[in-house]
Amino acid sequence: MVTDVTSTATTAAAQAEMKKSTGMNKDDFLKLFVTQLQNQDPLNPQDGTQFISQLAQLTQVEQAYNTNSNLQNMLNQGSNSATLAAVTLIGKQVEAQGNQLELKSGSPSTIQYKLDSAADQVTVSVTDQSGKVVRTLSGGSKGAGAGSVTWDGTDDKGTQLAAGTYSFSVSAKTASGSNVTAAGLVMGKVDGVDMSGASPMLSIGALKLKLTEVTSVTGGA
């Protein structure tokens, strides 16, 4: 079975690591122990307590190494599963939690968000990559659920900004001034997967999203 082969390989690796660090593995130690027993003075037998104690320590080292190897294998399998899941989303329309947006030259951007309850005033602030607020947009009153505002790509002075990636934040209040929970959304078609980091990142144009941020998936457009 595959499990038996993996277990055997892991044990062999553990013994090789033990021999590298201590000069012998468990098998070498047992051979030495048996040889000394065979050649001991029968009138003055050696005390095997120390040998047994050392053998127990070597066994613990081997077990610890096997445990670490098994955990690493599990992590690798999890990483492979995440990569496969990310690749299957290429060409699909996704909705994800996030506050990124891409401004393309000559095209307005739609900023998506979600409200937990109705709000009488929604405000969207757009910031550049340095963290500076470049545009404040009023979304007016909105009911609970998904909402959006359109940004024409200009700052508060009417100057057209450069194409690129920006971020946004959403604040919402009721007529009495109470805060309404609001969350930014990113929607779009997945056109690639970036696997250069520790975990795969979905690409939607210039935007990068974690797989765990995706909240819904629909068929390709």
UniProtKB/TrEMBL annotation:
A Pfam family: FLgD_tudor
Domain FlgD/Vpr Ig-like: 98-175
Keywords from the named record: Bacterial flagellum biogenesis, Cell projection, Cilium, Flagellum
Family matches, as InterPro entries: FlgD (IPR005648), FlgD/Vpr_Ig-like (IPR025965), FLgD_Tudor (IPR025963)
Signal peptide start and end residues: none
Domain FlgD Tudor-like stretches: 82-215
GO BP annotations, alphabetical order: bacterial-type flagellum organization
Record has Transcription as a keyword: no
Function: Required for flagellar hook formation. May act as a scaffolding protein.
Family: Belongs to the FlgD family.
Protein name: Basal-body rod modification protein FlgD
Source organism per UniProt: Citrifermentans bemidjiense (strain ATCC BAA-1014 / DSM 16622 / JCM 12645 / Bem) (Geobacter bemidjiensis)
